[in-house]
């Protein structure tokens, strides 16, 4: 495996993104830079050699006016990338109040995507809702559920739909997370860190690299085989890495 790909990294939280990307590149690590808003994608895309994803995170949805404007920006920016994220639904207690607006955003995004797009999806207490939205939209875009937290049945449904799951260290801390790693077909697993945790961060590139290697090693242990060549093939297939 020549390059490890962090498929869910928040480069927009980093104070010096060019330095971080360069340091990670020296360590043979590449990132898919998830964005929180379409307008943020336009402001950041191309600033570093990272793969920039066009996103509209459910936590950053505020009101009807913002949604209308940001979806227009999304449509404008879409031809500039085939990577989409972070998008999805969060129906946890803290976020459920604006669920109708979240659904409007997700439906608006899915209606615009084609089969060449790869999505990184946030689904908190919403795996079935997201899968229903994917089915209703008819999109042929590829779903990658980031930090999957649904049920075994929902995971089976995702896999049957051609979906993938990106695994981070914290997911492996739970018994259920480890069970999911065993359940998913080997060729549907990807790596992620979901780092850094918040804006204004200066993450240690060595820590990011170590987290990816540790995750890969743990996945290999859980699967009883060396997963490096499998994940290398999958990340190359989806992301060209």
Task: Please provide a written account of the structure.
The chain has about 240 residues and is an alpha/beta fold. It has a single domain, classed as Alpha-Beta Barrel (TIM Barrel), CATH 3.20.20.140. Helices cover about 45% and strands about 15% of the residues. The protein contains nine helices and eight strands. The strands form two sheets. It has a five-stranded parallel β-sheet, sandwiched between helices. Strands 1-2-3 form a three-stranded parallel β-sheet, with helices on both faces. Helix 1 crosses helix 8 (about 205-225) and helix 3 packs parallel to helix 4 (about 100-110). The longest helix has 19 residues, at about 205-225. This is TatD-related deoxyribonuclease. One of its GO terms (molecular function) is metal ion binding.
Topology overview:
Layout (H helix, E strand, L loop, with lengths): L3 E6 L7 H10 L2 E5 L4 H7 L6 E2 L11 H14 L5 E8 L8 H12 L7 E7 L2 H11 L4 E5 L5 H9 L3 E4 L7 H9 L5 E3 L13 H19 L4 H12 L2
Parallel strand pairs: 1-2, 2-3, 4-5, 5-6, 6-7, 7-8
Organism: Corynebacterium vitaeruminis DSM 20294
InterPro entries: DNase_TatD-rel_CS, Metal_Hydrolase, TatD-like
Keywords: Hydrolase, Metal-binding
Number of domains: 1
CATH first level: which class? Alpha Beta
Mean pLDDT: 97
Helix vs. strand class: alpha/beta
Task: State the assembly state of the protein chains.
Answer: single chain
Radius of gyration: 17 Å
Count of runs of 4 or more consecutive helical residues: 9
The share of residues in extended strands comes to 15-25%
Major β-sheet annotation: 5 strands, parallel
Q: Assign the CATH superfamily.
A: Metal-dependent hydrolases
At CATH's second level, what is the architecture? Alpha-Beta Barrel
Report strand order across the widest sheet.
4-5-6-7-8
């Amino acid at each position: 495996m020549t390059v490890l790909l962090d498929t869910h990294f928040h480069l927009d939280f980093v104070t010096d993104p060019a330095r971080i990307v360069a340091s990670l590149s020296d360590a043979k690590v590449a990132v898919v830079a998830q964005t929180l808003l379409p307008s943020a994608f336009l402001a950041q895309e191309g600033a570093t050699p990272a793969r920039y994803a066009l996103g509209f995170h459910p936590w950053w949805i505020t009101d009807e006016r913002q949604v209308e404007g940001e979806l227009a920006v999304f449509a404008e920016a879409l031809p500039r990338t085939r990577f989409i994220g972070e998008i999805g639904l969060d129906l946890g207690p803290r976020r459920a109040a604006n669920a109708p607006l979240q659904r409007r955003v997700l439906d608006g995004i899915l209606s615009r995507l084609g089969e060449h797009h790869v999505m990184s999806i946030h689904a908190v207490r919403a795996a079935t809702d997201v899968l229903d939205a994917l089915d209703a939209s008819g999109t042929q875009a590829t779903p990658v559920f980031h930090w999957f937290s649904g049920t075994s049945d929902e995971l089976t449904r995702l896999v049957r739909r051609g979906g993938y799951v990106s695994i981070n260290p914290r997911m492996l801390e739970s018994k259920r997370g480890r069970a999911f790693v065993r359940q998913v077909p080997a060729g549907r697993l990807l790596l992620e860190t979901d780092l850094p945790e918040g804006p204004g961060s200066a993450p240690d590139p060595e820590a990011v690299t170590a987290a990816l290697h540790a995750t890969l090693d743990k996945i290999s242990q859980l699967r009883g085989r060396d997963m490096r060549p499998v994940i290398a093939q999958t990340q190359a297939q989806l992301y060209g890495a």
